[in-house]
Amino acid sequence: MLPLVDQVFSGRTVTVFAYGVTSSGKTYTMQGNGLDDRGVIGLVVDEIFKRLGAAGGTLSMSYLELYLDAPYDLLVPPSSRRKLQILSTSSAGTTSSHSSAPPLSFGTSIHLPALSTHHIESPEAFRSLYAQAAGNRSTGATLLNSSSSRSHAVLTLYLTLANAVVGKLHLLDLAGSENNNLTGNNPSRMKESSAINTSLTALGLVVSALNDNAKAISKAASKGEDPKLKLIPYRSSSLTRLLSDALGGSSLALLIVCLAPGTKFRSDLVRSVG
């Protein structure tokens, strides 16, 4: 993770995903289990604060969940939670909030006007705020997990340095892809499962299109030709809309694939690593 923290301090946008079937350990990977067993999030935050003093910077955070493909602020009390609006501003300055607008391209600015952002003074302050927010996340019981995440959680750290360099780090605990034959979902859980699987499919299509375009650019360059690029389907889900300024271009991404043991997860394992 240290090389990725280096990139955030250089002003780049970095995204880290934990992906896998439900009950495969994604949440544990990202948030760990206490001070003696820190996950990716705790390790990254501690490393950032180690460097902040010398760099003369500040750190702030936002934390939201995507439940049924709608964004909600996890840093406000549950009684005050409202669906957030996602706005996109093109390089031409036009702003849109709906999926029928023109396709998004990398470099489009994404913002959620009502999403709260909180300044963080120390790792201890972060842990307190994060624990409070994590407790607000939507969970539910399935046959595979008594406390299954029913939403995608998106923690964003904003780093501002004295030299005005701004870096951004997205840390995502994606809800698990689900096979309803294994989870025994009731109608309510099945609705959540459908939204989860649909958004994960959309994310996969975006990543696939980005990879195809990278190959096309490389191939065209070797021939001295203009590449034929695919349209990146960022608007396919709220998840991919939120990440449209973090996937592609000069941004960096790390995918952590979590695998569940057992022959019953064989097909899920193949899909995860395929």
Structural topology:
Blueprint: H1 2-9, E1 13-20, H2 26-31, H3 40-55, E2 58-67, E3 70-73, E4 87-89, E5 95-96, E6 109-111, E7 118-120, H4 123-134, E8 139-140, E9 148-149, E10 152-160, E11 166-173, H5 180-183, H6 187-223, H7 238-242, E12 252-258, H8 266-273
Parallel strand pairs: 1-11, 1-12
Antiparallel strand pairs: 2-3, 2-7, 2-10, 4-5, 4-6, 8-9, 10-11
CATH superfamily: Kinesin motor domain
Q: So how many helices?
A: 8
The unreliable regions are: none
Strand tally: 12
What would you say this structure looks like, in words?
This is P-loop containing nucleoside triphosphate hydrolase protein. Pfam families: Kinesin. InterPro entries: Kinesin-like_fam (IPR027640), Kinesin_motor_dom (IPR001752), Kinesin_motor_dom_sf (IPR036961), P-loop_NTPase (IPR027417). The chain is α+β, with helices and mostly antiparallel strands. The protein has a single domain, classed as Kinesin motor domain (Kinesin), CATH 3.40.850. It has helices at residues 2-9, 26-31, 40-55, 123-134, 180-183, 187-223, 238-242, 266-273, and strands at residues 13-20, 58-67, 70-73, 87-89, 95-96, 109-111, 118-120, 139-140, 148-149, 152-160, 166-173, 252-258. Strands 1, 2, 3, 7, 10, 11 and 12 form a 7-stranded mixed sheet that branches. A 3-stranded antiparallel sheet has the order 5-4-6, with no helix packed on it. A two-stranded antiparallel ribbon has the order 8-9. The model has no long low-confidence stretch (mean pLDDT 84).
